[in-house]
Every structure is written in C-alpha cells, then in structure tokens.
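User: Please predict the structure of the protein below. I'd like the answer in structure-token form so I can feed it into my own downstream comparison script.

Assistant: Understood. Taking the following sequence of 108 residues as input:
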Amino acid sequence: SDAAGEKVVFGYNPNNQQYWLDRGASGMVNFHPGFGGSFSAPRLASPGEDLDLVFVMDRSSIEVFADKGLTVMTGLFFSQQPLTGLRVNTTDTYVIKKMAYTALGSAW
C-alpha cells in the first residue's frame, strides 16, 4: 500500500482452495473495464498442507509463487506513487515460520 490508499491485496480462501489477487484500488485502473477487478487461481497443493508463498514485487507488478510454484499469479498495477507498506492479517490462525525481505535493485 501507499500513503494515498492505493493497494494491491492478495488472499487465500481455504473454503474453495483458491488464491486471489485484487488490484481494484491499486491506482490507475479505469483504462479497461476488467482491469481493476479481482482474479483467482486454484490451490493445487493437497488440502491441509502448509501454505508456502513467495512474493516478488517491483514498481508495477507482483508475482506470487504458491506451494513451490504449483500455482503462479502475476498482476500488473499502475500506482501513482511507490507501494511501500506491507500488512499481513487473517481471520484464521496461521503461524509465519519464515519471513524475509530483500530489496530489488533498479534495472535502469
């Protein structure tokens, strides 16, 4: 998220075994009717297995590698300023076993 309230939201729904990504509030989304919505992908790992998530994010995209790459999602976004905030929340009980942050250098 950023200070202006722009955000990209990722989630997991255990009831239907789906990951989802919502970029509806990610910045510029009005250039195409279907761009600003939410999309989902199935969780292909066995139910009950620990969630294994890797996120790679830069100025305008997010890549999600779930369950060692069994499910992969990519989302582009066009925020007006860099997304610099991170928040993790849940309505269920999860234990974060490992969390790491590595800054990506510029390719330019």
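That's the full token string. Strands lie at 9-13, 18-22, 38-42, 53-57, 61-66, 71-76.
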